[in-house]
Amino acid sequence: MADSGSDLAQAVAQMFPGHGVEMKNSIGEKRRNLTITHEKGDEVVRVRLEAKAAEKGERTADAIFVCRAKDAQHFVVVIVELKGSDFPHALSQLEQTSERYCGRGRKKEHGKGLGSNHLKRVIGLVSCPRGQKDQAKIKEMRKRGIDALHWKDYRIDLSVLLKKAK
After folding, report:
1. Which end of the chain is more exposed for a tag (fewer CB within 10 A), N or C?
2. Alpha-carbon dihedral of residues 82, 83, 86, 87, nearest 10 degrees?
3. Is residue 1 part of a domain?
4. Residue 49 in contact with residue 61, Cβ under 8 Å?
5. How many separate domains does the chain show?
6. Domain of 64?
7. Is 104 part of any domain?
8. Strand 43-48 relative to strand 20-22: parallel, antiparallel, unpaired?
9. Residue 104: how many CB atoms within 10 A of its CB?
């Protein structure tokens, strides 16, 4: 259920019925965490995916964050996978999640909603402190409209993601 008070959170909740949608800026799993830091007035909405997908036997990323800077018309979708070291597997999960939910910048599975009119960019973020980059796979994903980032820290500022989305 979406926290009240945010039009963005309510719209995201309609796009992802049955998923945990909250005004949260962090995700944690198995001693791994990632926090998207941001300025006052920016919006970060988290959609938890993995538990529901696991019930269906699907592979998916841990979460999708829908982020919008204060007074911005467009938002950025950040697909997040937390990994210890298996970066190639994480990229595969990002790709499958993007295809299911954000194919070519359009909301696929859940019908109309925020859609391509307001979506600026899809970013795949792998928090993988020990993994090795796979530049060829990252380049291939970029051709499909996903900017993949290999992030070795447990914090990333929204401004970094917004710059990547330009």
Report:
1. C
2. 40
3. no
4. yes
5. 1
6. 7-165
7. yes
8. antiparallel
9. 12
